[in-house]
Design brief:
Blueprint lengths: L1 E12 L4 E3 L2 E3 L4 E2 L7 H13 L5 H4 L12 H14 L3 E10 L9 H12 L6 E6 L5 H4 L3 E11 L4
Parallel strand pairs: 5-6
Antiparallel strand pairs: 1-4, 1-7, 2-3, 5-7
Helix pairs in contact: 1-3
Length: 159
């Protein structure tokens, strides 16, 4: 088994939609991003790539490449899973934490878990989605942005 960690952060901008964990959530603003700016999926992709020692999100989906403008992050996740599968890796478990002061995650948590579990071909019990705030500290706490972390385990080649 291998372990990977990912982090993604975006500033709020525009009217939305706001997509987190593959689910459109209730919030009046979207984020500044090349793709749909799904912080949970971006953190998850980085964690998966890191666990497989394959680099990071920007190496495969660079923000200066117009192909990724407005891209659905779930499609990027599917492409990432293909990269891992080509090398013999499969996700075993994921744990995502969303950090936001002004977005309520609880009403969407189970939909996020279901969407991620389906994309990862994992049982629901293999996908955790949590949320926290920064108690009004910093740019996340003042409502200027949103962040997510992800920890994953993957199975596959040892060498």
């Amino acid at each position: 088994m291998r372990v990977g960690f990912g982090l993604d952060i975006h500033a709020f901008a525009g009217e939305g939609p706001l997509v987190i964990g593959g689910v459109t959530v209730d919030h009046p603003r979207g984020v500044a991003a090349t793709s749909d700016g799904d912080v949970a999926v971006h953190a998850l992709i980085d964690a998966l790539l890191g666990a497989a020692a394959l680099g990071d999100l920007g190496a495969y989906f660079p923000s200066d490449d117009p192909r990724w403008h407005g891209a659905d992050s779930m499609d990027l996740l599917t492409a990432t899973l293909s990269l891992l599968a080509d090398r013999g890796f499969t996700p075993a478990q994921v744990d995502v934490t969303i950090i936001a002061q002004v977005v309520r995650i609880d009403p969407h948590r189970e939909a996020m878990r279901s969407r991620l579990a389906a994309a990862l071909d994992l049982p629901l019990s293999g996908v955790s989605v949590k949320a926290t705030t920064t108690d009004h500290l910093g740019f996340l706490g003042d409502g200027s942005g949103i962040a997510a972390t992800a920890v994953v385990t993957i199975g596959g080649p040892v060498a």
